[in-house]
Write a structure and sequence with these properties.
Shape: globular
Number of helices: 10
CATH topology of the largest domain: Nucleotidyltransferase, domain 5
Helix content: 25-40%
Number of strands: 13
CATH architecture of the largest domain: 2-Layer Sandwich
Strand order of the largest sheet: 5-4-3-6-7-13
CATH class of the largest domain: Alpha Beta
Bound molecules: 5'-O-[(R)-(carboxyoxy)(hydroxy)phosphoryl]adenosine, zinc ion
Strand content: 15-25%
Radius of gyration: 20 Å
Oligomer: single chain
Length: 349
Amino acid sequence: MNKVKNTLFSNKLVTIDNNSLIMAIESSCDETACAIVKGGREVISNVVASQIKIHEEYGGVIPEIAAREHLEAINVVIDEAFKQAGVNGEQISAFAGTVGPGLVGCLLVGMNAAKSLALAYDKPFIGVNHLNAHLAANFIDTDLEPPFIALLVSGGHTQIIRVNSYSDMEIIGETIDDAVGEAYDKVARLIGLPYPGGPKLDKLAQEGNPYAFKLPESKVGGYDFSFSGLKTASLRLVKSFTDKNIPLPLEDICASFQECVSATLYKKVKHALEENNYKQVVLAGGVAANSEIRKKIFSLKEFGYNVYAPQMKYCTDNASMVASAAYFFDGKNSTFDNIDVEVFSRIKG
Ligand code: KG4
Ligand code: ZN
């Protein structure tokens, strides 16, 4: 039996069930996205307008430019999501929007658009935590239910989370410095790859020897991570070639970096599964698209674990995952069933 969503609207309890449609909007960083999802698992339409081309020339996301681009794109993606689904606003049961963490100016555009739709059609508004949305990408087209261990790896976060139920989650490990995606993008930049470097580094890594160079795995304890030492070691490795005017063995550097990162993630997740006695593990966040990290995490199946990772198009930022999170999650700090909720840039306390 699939879960149903109960939300308070105009002082009445409203039930959103398997047949209900949620429209969601995502605009926390550099993707303007809108989607319509049925019962939290079935994507009816999924529209994403990426700003990568615009930010490429600056080598990263410029918040002011990103916010302006969201304003340009927002109505277009909403219209397109309605059009692709062949439904109108009256047929939507609730409107959801990402409220944080993310770039405040960017979040405001998407969240206010979702709130406006909710007010116009007199339907509930559900605010969604972007990190929970990444986790919820695993509910799409699957029968996944908690409890599970999640490895969340994105441009801004690296966490191991115990998801005990739809309303009870606990972060048991996280990075003490750079996020995995950030480390990928920084090292990619160092070797001259354009923004966002993560996917390009991954591609080159697949052509190289993962054992060509020994890069240091961090020694940080428990389920926590650190990637700054690896970043410095990569810098030193690159310099050892450039100082002597030797062309960089790009594929081997990428493969060795990727091996180091994926081995660390794998070990920590395996420990978390064993020590907490969980049977299921999910991978989430933009870096969940990484070929080697997926391969290593999926290899946990050999030990009898159920392993989930979102389809590629639902790994990086999209609105289907936001609709799915709005439907399934109801914990404090994961969804906010309240039209007065405000955007936030970082997770509080
Ligand atoms: O989740 P996401 O779309 O945005 C955030 O919420 O941060 O993640 C974007 C991050 C970027 O750092 C990007 O380089 C990284 O995900 N990424 C990858 C791959 N695809 C995306 N990193 C490594 N390998 C990939 N295949
Ligand atoms: Zn994201």
